[in-house]
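Review the following:
>
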Amino acid sequence: MQIPVINRSHHPLPEYQTPHAAGLDLRANLEAPVTLGPLERALIPTGLSLEIPVGYEAQIRPRSGLAYKHGIGLVNSPGTIDADYRGEIKVLLVNLSNEPFVVNDGERIAQLIVAKHETIAWQPAEALSETQRGAGGYGSTGVG
């Protein structure tokens, strides 16, 4: 799949880190480091704008290494970039640790995954088909 991209950062375009990786790493495009204190969040620019094809979305997901080593996640995970958005991709990082974390220019801060999606049409109904689970919600299966 080819996706038109504008790169206003001074970093190379995102690349897959391994041959079978699903996500591309996004890098921070910063003029100065950003320090996130415990429980603080910040919108980090990437300098990238995309033209996602209709019927697809770009998902922004946390990087597992940042989450495990530093407690850094995304407030809206996964974030969705719709096919009609043409602005800069920004990543909403949050520090869930007890220590300050410094985001430096060029640091890999999130992953981008492009995924196909369906557009639904609602079909009003008076009842839904029966299942073994039924309306059982949180914890209703008794597992875990």
Notes: The helical segments are 64-70. Strands lie at 5-7, 24-27, 34-36, 41-50, 56-61, 72-74, 79-81, 88-95, 101-103, 108-116. The two ends are 40 Å apart (CA to CA).
